[in-house]
Amino acid sequence: MTASAPHTWSTAPSTAEQWVDRAREVAALLAVDAVARDRAGATPHAEVSLLKDSGLVTLLGPVEHGGAGLDWSTAYRVIREVAVGDGSIGQLLGYHYLWFWTARLVATPEQVAAVEERATRERWFFGGAVNPRDSDLTIVDEGDEIVFTGRKSFSTGGKVSDVTVLEGVLEGTEEHVFAIVPSRQDAIVFNDDWDNLGQRLTESGSVEIRGVRVPWSDAAGYVDKRFRPRVYNTLNVPLIQLVFTNFYLGIARGALTAAAAYTRDRTRPWPFAHDVKGTAVEEFHVLDTYGDLQAKLWAAEALADRAAGVIEAINTHPDTVTERERGEAAVVVAAAKQRAIDTGLEVGTRVFDVTGARATANTVGLDIFWRNIRTHSLHDPVAHKRAEVGRYALLGELPEPTWYT
Predict the structure, then answer these.
(1) Torsions phi, psi of 179, nearest 5?
(2) Is 108 exposed, middle or buried (0-12, 13-18, 19+ CB in 10 A)?
(3) What's the CATH class of domain 231-395?
(4) Hey, where are the domains in the chain?
(5) CA pair distance 77, 256, nearest whole angstrom
(6) Is 194 helix (H, G, I), strand (E, B) or coil?
(7) Which residues lie below 8 Å from residue 30, measured CB to CB, with a gap of 6+?
(8) CB atoms < 10 A from the CB of 73, how many?
(9) Which InterPro entries match (predicted)?
(10) Of 5, 231, 313, 351, whose CB has the highest number of CB atoms within 10 Å?
(11) Helix crossing, 323-350 with 284-315: angle to 10°?
């Protein structure tokens, strides 16, 4: 069975570990034809249906509305597992979780309850048009409604999303407004122009926002057209940076797993060595390389898990989180992200040293892992993450919240 074939589950998992196992099942289905789907570059409707049918899209949703009611620590592990099978779909799921959580980050309690009930019951899949490197969308106040207009060069989720998170600035002010709107409407035009080296199935092309109308009552966190800020509003960046970290790690594990299978089954020992071996898996340099890469990957995963624990501790008291707690979480996440990138790129490159020349064939598809990490790891310069950790280690400085920190 493949990702594009129908698949249903008769029962829902009941524990966090069982949900992680469900993610592994999904990853196994995705892995079967991941290379072919990457080469085809088709819109991943079937893959998103698989995420819905498996129940993974409602992992963070309230139990009373049919969700699993689980935490971010579990969500991060699920993202990592899905990315083992297909990095693009791991990214889509991770972004979905972040945008699902948007209401918790910025909305009023009443808005949170309403959004999470509908999103969970109807199994919404979330996309987002919130690329902060572009000019903000312009928002015009028209009485009972606000109107979003503008363009974003990246909008992950695109045509496979049921709803899209918009963010813009209210005209004549410095007030930012988030809103969740239906993706399928005439005022939203996805341009189908995502044609990049990797993460090819993330539907991350540009989008035109041509007068999307939103009732003021749906402006997240606003009451009587006024927003009441809190520190927790700024946790969106550490949350999504750790999403990145975990699908990088999943992709790296997928690379190591695929390469190991190839080495065991197809790599030939070098016939001109001083000490010729009967099989490639007996060769010292092969064992040394796999041992080195596995140790580095385990270390990077452990740091990511530590960062998830820090995030989880903050989520236990969102209304009282301090700037120091938020800043220290951002530092640990920055450290985890840089380790994941460095390790993932190394794994994606060095697996060819232990698989051999024939493993570069397009039919093998080992290139997909490096391409995926290389593409997305340029989202924001990793050097700035290292500098954030360096300023903390050297000067005790905490990073100030920005759209990338």
Answers:
(1) -150, 145
(2) middle
(3) mainly alpha
(4) 16-121, 126-227, 231-395
(5) 18
(6) coil
(7) 3, 47, 50, 82, 85, 86, 89
(8) 16
(9) Acyl-CoA_DH_C, Acyl-CoA_Oxase/DH_mid-dom_sf, AcylCo_DH-like_C, AcylCoA_DH/ox_N, AcylCoA_DH/ox_N_sf, AcylCoA_DH/oxidase_NM_dom_sf
(10) 351
(11) 160
- Whether 360 contacts 184, CB under 8 Å: no
CATH homologous superfamily for the domain 16-121? Acyl-CoA dehydrogenase/oxidase, N-terminal domain (1.10.540.10)
Q: What is the mean pLDDT of the chain?
A: 97
Distance CA 135, CA 171 (A): 13
Cα 112-241-308 angle, rounded to 5 deg: 75
What six digits make up the tokens of 134?
Answer: 């572009």
The Cα 402–Cα 96 span in angstroms is: 21
> pLDDT band for position 78 (50/70/90)?
very high
Q: What angle do CA 114, 137, 129 make, to 5 degrees?
A: 60
Question: What is residue 185's predicted lDDT score, i.e. its pLDDT?
Answer: 98
Which of the four CATH numbers 3.10.350.10, 3.30.110.30, 2.40.110.10, 1.10.510.10 does domain 126-227 have? 2.40.110.10
pLDDT tens, residue by residue, 129-155: 999 999 999 999 999 999 999 999 999
Residue from 164, 172, 159, 151 nearest 214 by CA: 164
The SS3 call for residue 217 is: helix
CA distance 247 to 340: 9
Residue 392: partners with Cβ closer than 8 Å, 6 or more residues away? 328, 331, 398, 399
Q: Half-sphere exposure (CA, 13 Å, Cβ side) for 24?
A: 8
